[in-house]
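hey m, so remember when u said the tokens were messed up on ur end? i reran from scratch. heres the input so u can diff it against urs
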Amino acid sequence: MKKKIVVLSGDGIGPEIMESSIAILKKALAHATIELAFEEYLFGGAGIDATGSPLPETTSAACKQADAILLGAIGGPQWNNVANTPEQGLLKLRKELGLYVNVRPVSVPDALIHLSPVKEEIIKGTDFIVVRELTSGIYFGEPRHLGEEEAFDTNRYNVKEIRRIMCKAFEIAQRRSKRVLSVDKANVLATSKLWRKTAEEVANEFPDCTLEHQYVDSAAMRIVQEPTAFDVIVTENLFGDILSDEASILPGTLGVLSSASHSESGISLYEPIHGSAPDIAGKNSANPVSMILSASLMLRQSFDLNDEADRIEDACHKVMEEGILTKDLGGTTTTTEFTSAILEKLS
């Protein structure tokens, strides 16, 4: 069985880390029942340079026909002041594909505990998932206005939007420790009051799971103070953006965390959480782990290839435990050397 994977390498270090992840996917799936067919398309700054658009029509059309999408990284200072930025292209792609949920696993491998700004006795054993609503809320609400003396944005949610993100969070929790923490600001915001009410209704449909609520400011403190207490955190777009970025500092580097965005139609996009790092692009020093683990997440969540995903993740962790680390992790290993070490483990 062949699956079409649209590859959006993007900008900066994107092409380098994408090359690593595809090599590892091919190695891990050498004897699998599923064959991945990779098709490369322009996106982000690369799309602007070639066509004037960060999301060319051919790229958009291909993504809509894909079985899954791999995205490297986008952006760079040369596109900061263009009319249609690489980041706007990503927002448009999310909207066109209906990527309503972002799933970000947060864990701290033992090999990287020393890099965490949090004490070892607090951070060791951290393993939770942030589930963020991605296509509504204050980032998309209308009306909005920016004037000389006044500005405003609109935070808007409806029951359908809240219900589908809650269902996704509970479905994920059912495969884990069956604990869901819903984060809101229901003591102040009308949208959060509706969010909490809807969460309670959905929880009744998942009696094997437990639901707790916490205000976003309290949850932000608890992520640093007690990160091992969480299983699945679900929240709205703005809060999820902030909390998932806060959680990303727990391993001490952005270079080892993966991310997935899912649609109701079944199309999913997988990407590292870090940026394009234009300062190190082309220097063969980028850390490919986040991209590799995002590709592994694709195998797990889009194609149920859990054994192959386990092998890739185990290989990454073993390589790091052996002290084979890229510069951002305190080592001297190049991108290609790190990739070769993982390929050797997979052999």
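this time it looks ok to me. DSSP finds twelve helices and twelve strands in the chain. if urs says something different then somethings off w ur setup not the seq
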